[in-house]
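Milestone 3.1: sequence recovery, worked example.
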């Protein structure tokens, strides 16, 4: 009996792979010892393949196939006798996949509503955390934009928001949330210490050997725990001035929809935003 495993990544591989066991030893504790997994991961399927243990995990509503031996774990596609075993397993789990996606979508929707309620309750803190703004001359209302200075999707969103602001008399109030790591924090600190204007911020670049200041330290001491309480781990986020709506990601079409502005066809093609890369 021969297996062909086309793998995307070898997570952990021990030195002795001669004895391939069943699934008896495989549980979430064992998997966590072999590879970093998010806290909400769970096993939805196991099968002894006579040497390898086939496992399917649910991760944020997506099914991920794994293959385990006694002391190693593989991620990949398994073939046997020209049969695509992995595909057959996932096809058989379509009902499970739908349920897991539905659960994940419901969880995300609940979390989004909780964040909206949090922001609406804490608008005064968002105002206090605002560092600079873009304000056309006749602006009579405003939006908060939570952004990271090193976020690609944030940078794509800002010009669209500027046009929206000029055409509709809006002020854009910018809150820096450097969620993407040390580089982001250094860039935020530089902007704060150098008293950047909105125009300056639009041209921000990473500076080597950034020197911080007490003002930046105080800001980060406020902003990081605040958004942690909001369970926010990504950017950009747009919050209406009265907190009645929130757009998560850089979808300018959704912002326009909340403002009652007609969108051009195709205007909604955008990303859900940036999130930090998990630490290894």
């Amino acid at each position: 009996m021969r297996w062909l495993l086309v793998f995307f990544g070898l997570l952990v591989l021990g030195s002795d792979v001669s004895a391939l066991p069943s699934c008896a030893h495989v549980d979430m504790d064992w998997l966590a010892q072999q590879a970093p997994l998010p806290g909400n991961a769970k096993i939805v399927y196991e099968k002894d393949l006579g040497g390898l243990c086939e496992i399917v995990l649910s991760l944020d509503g997506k099914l991920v196939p794994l293959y385990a031996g006694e002391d190693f774990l593989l991620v990949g596609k398994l073939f046997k006798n020209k049969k695509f075993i992995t595909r057959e397993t996932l096809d058989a789990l379509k009902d499970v996949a739908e349920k897991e996606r539905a659960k994940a979508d419901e969880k995300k929707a609940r979390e989004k509503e909780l964040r909206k309620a949090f922001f609406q309750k804490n608008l005064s803190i968002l105002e206090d955390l605002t560092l600079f703004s873009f304000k056309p001359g006749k602006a009579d209302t405003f939006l908060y934009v939570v952004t990271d200075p090193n976020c690609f999707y944030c940078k794509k969103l800002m010009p669209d928001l500027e046009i929206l602001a000029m055409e509709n008399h809006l002020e854009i109030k910018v809150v820096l949330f450097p969620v993407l790591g040390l580089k982001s924090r250094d860039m935020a600190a530089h902007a704060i210490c150098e008293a950047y204007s909105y125009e300056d911020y639009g041209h921000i670049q990473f500076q080597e050997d950034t020197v911080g200041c007490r003002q930046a330290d105080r800001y980060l001491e406020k902003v990081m725990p605040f958004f942690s309480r909001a369970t926010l781990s990504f950017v950009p986020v747009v919050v209406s001035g009265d907190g009645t709506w929130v757009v998560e990601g850089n979808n300018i079409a959704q912002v326009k929809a909340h403002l009652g502005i007609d969108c051009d066809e195709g205007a909604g093609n955008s990303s859900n935003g940036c999130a930090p890369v998990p630490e290894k």
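The two ends are 36 Å apart (CA to CA). Residues 4-92 form one domain.
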